[in-house]
């Protein structure tokens, strides 16, 4: 039997009832995107699985930055040689879901309730692989590069990130308008309230880069290679691989 440990860190405030209610509302909408595969989690999970099995015939450790409920890892990791999973997320309720998703899977699990920027600058030992999906794009470009540099220092082999991506020459307002025009009719299972909440979040918080922007960020962060390995059918999300 393998235990799941959730660690709290100084500065992580307790979850109050209002924060919990907000989290549950937002998470329920996000969960619909995942369950209906609206943002291609299935395909990127398969690509992560393939990359892990091509590289690791021996036990390895994986770091999942902004892990959420770790549902992708629940599907991917049992088919690999993983021996240790470390998930970091700021939201305690997400970590509780992750703990449930990852219990009894036969590998060690540590979950840290922490801001990922602070966590990446304070890593005791590197992981073999790091993964981050749909979470870095809230940072401005200089902070993205700083974070990617810290992830490189904390990783032995390769890093994969899955992030919203503008077309070359497409500015942020044009991306946001395309995001809404394309996804509103596709994401049929969302209620109007759920769509409005996601649209408002994306319009206020998302700072997607272009493909060349994400690749250049990897170069500036010191990776030996940076490339796109998948673009989703809407041409709005790309999976990148950065080799250490
Ligand atoms: C859109 S979800 C993605 C979850 C998961 N990676 C996936 O692909 O399904 C974004 C996650 O990032 C977490 N998050 C956002 N900012 C964070 C930060 N500064 N430090 C740690 N986690 C953060 C949120 O709590 C949330 O679980």
Annotated CATH topology: Rossmann fold
The CATH architecture: 3-Layer(aba) Sandwich
- What are the secondary-structure elements, in order, as H or E? EHHEHEHEHEHEHHEHEE
Q: How much is the average pLDDT?
A: 93
Count the strands? Answer: 9
Radius of gyration equals 17 Å
Structural class, please? alpha/beta
Count, helices = 9
Largest β-sheet summary: 9 strands, mixed
- Helical content band: 40-55%
Structure, explained:
This protein is α/β, with parallel strands linked by helices. The chain has one domain (4-21, 38-169, 208-243): 3-Layer(aba) Sandwich (Rossmann fold), CATH 3.40.50.150. 44% of the residues lie in helices and 25% in strands. The chain has 9 helices and 9 strands. It has helices at residues 17-35, 41-55, 71-76, 92-102, 116-120, 141-153, 172-186, 192-205, 211-220, and strands at residues 4-8, 60-65, 82-89, 108-113, 127-133, 155-166, 209-210, 225-231, 237-243. Helix 1 (17-35) crosses helix 8. The longest helix is centred in the first third of the chain and has 19 residues, at 17-35. The two termini are 33 Å apart. The model has no long low-confidence stretch (mean pLDDT 93). The structure holds S-adenosylmethionine. Residues 30, 34, 66-68, 88-91, 94, 115-116, 133-135 line the site of S-adenosylmethionine.
């Amino acid at each position: 039997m393998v235990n799941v440990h959730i660690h709290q860190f100084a500065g992580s405030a307790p979850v109050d009832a209002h924060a919990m209610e907000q989290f549950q509302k937002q998470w329920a909408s996000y969960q619909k995107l995942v369950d209906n595969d609206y943002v291609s989690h299935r395909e990127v999970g398969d690509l992560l699985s393939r990359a892990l099995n091509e590289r690791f015939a021996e036990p390895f450790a994986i770091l999942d930055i902004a892990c959420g409920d770790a549902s992708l890892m629940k599907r991917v990791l049992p088919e690999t040689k993983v021996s240790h999973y470390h998930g970091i997320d700021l939201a305690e309720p997400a970590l509780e879901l992750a703990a449930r998703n990852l219990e009894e899977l036969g590998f060690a699990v540590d979950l840290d309730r922490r801001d990922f920027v602070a966590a990446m600058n304070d890593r005791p030992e590197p992981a073999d692989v790091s993964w981050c999906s749909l979470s870095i794009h809230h940072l401005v470009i200089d902070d993205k590069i700083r974070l990617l540099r810290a992830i490189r220092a904390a990783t032995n082999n390769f890093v994969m990130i899955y992030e919203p991506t503008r077309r070359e020459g497409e500015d942020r307002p044009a991306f946001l308008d395309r995001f809404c025009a394309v996804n509103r009719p596709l994401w049929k299972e969302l209620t109007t309230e759920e769509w409005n909440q996601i649209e408002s979040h994306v319009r206020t918080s998302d700072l997607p880069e272009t493909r060349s922007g994400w690749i250049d960020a990897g170069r500036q962060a010191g990776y030996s290679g940076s490339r796109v390995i998948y673009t989703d059918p809407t041409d709005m999300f790309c999976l990148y691989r950065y080799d250490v």
